[in-house]
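Incident log, structure service

09:12 report received: a user says their structure output differs between two submissions of the same chain.
09:20 pulled the input from the user's history:
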Amino acid sequence: MERERKSRISDNCVLAEAIAANVTLLFDDGKKPFLKPWDFYPELFKEEQQIYEKEEEEKKLRKAEFESGVEAGFKTGIETGIKSMLDLGKYSMEEIAEVFHVSVDKVKAVRNMLI
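09:34 re-ran on a clean worker, output below:
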């Protein structure tokens, strides 16, 4: 009975410590991650930590792939717009560069791809 009570008290102390640490992190500009169960019981939650870390790594990879795709799509969109304006023949290279916020050299490079 006393053993169980000590165990509950110990668990409650760890819980209080975790809550206090995580509340403190809310006001910390260092942007540290919230504490996880394995920060307090590393052996007990070893498997969960590995799963979590694997999932976080996969999220980072998906985010990088997404950002790369967005960047490539943005580049393609600009090049398509430049080609369209060049095809119209109404705009100078300087005007096109200004519209797309690129250098005149970039407009020339796109023009050279058309030739």
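09:41 both user submissions now match this output. Likely a transient worker issue. Closing.
09:42 reviewer note: Residues 55 and 66 are 16 Å apart (CA to CA). The mean pLDDT is 90.
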